[in-house]
UniProtKB/TrEMBL annotation:
Broad class of where this protein is predominantly found: membrane
The species this protein was found in: Paenibacillus glucanolyticus
Positions of transmembrane segments: 21-45, 84-108, 120-140, 152-176, 197-221, 254-275
Family to which the UniProt record says this protein belongs: Belongs to the binding-protein-dependent transport system permease family.
Protein name, entry field: ABC transporter permease
Amino acid sequence: MEPTIVVEHKTQRVRKSRFSLGTTLMYVILTAWSLTTIYPLFWIVNNSFKVSRDVMNNSFGIAWDPVLINYQNAFDRINIGRSYINSLVMSFSTVFLVLLLGGLAAYVLSRFNFRGKKTIFSILYATLLIPAFATVVPVYELLIKTSLVNTYWGLIFPQTAGNLTFATLVIAGYMATIPKELEEAAFMDGCNRWQMFVKIFVPISQPVFASASIFVFMWAYNDLFSALIFVNKENVRPIVALLNEISSQYGTDFGLMATAVSLTVIPVLIVYLFISKYIQKGLTEGAVKG
């Protein structure tokens, strides 16, 4: 019995050493990968406190003597505050429409059985494979005919249509897991379909609604492709389009460019840090099941 005990102790030691080595290697790789993301952000913020000359001569040096002239120019010279408002109005409007329409569509697809349901799901999955630039010409012509070019709605409607399929599939996958007993109990209490959706399914599906809203907001906020095509006037220009304009009009003012990028990224990063737990829930609880 004693030799067996010795062998078992040796085996446990080997397992512990292997586990420690693997864990250490994992942390080293994750740390190196995180630095590739954190350092560029630090580089941008650091250079936003330098004048353009210092950015060109010593872009990797730390701004020991920071200046705020770039932030003043960002609000006075390029009116970044107006672009902020435009981006928030368009992004939040897109999120509202996507959650409303996608939630209703998901409720029907997940709780009703009807002919052609599988076909609808197949079409929805197929639309995810269509690239956005393939629909630019017909969408632009439609916006011209309806006089929506260079308006808030000219960007809200295309972004809503582009994100609606994703939200519908994710929310439908979550709603399909809700027990039928809740639905039957609501019927017994006299709820109609609309009341059941509002009072039962929406509150229970709050995690997936929150997850979908995060993704939709990020995609709408960072959608440079649509902003450059459908909206080009200053009074409705979102902040991502403003960044592109800065790089062309003020290409030599690198300090101003770094400031504009910092003002664009930092708020989104702060929001992400507060709601990152919902993203993890959306990747698991909101997954579409076969």
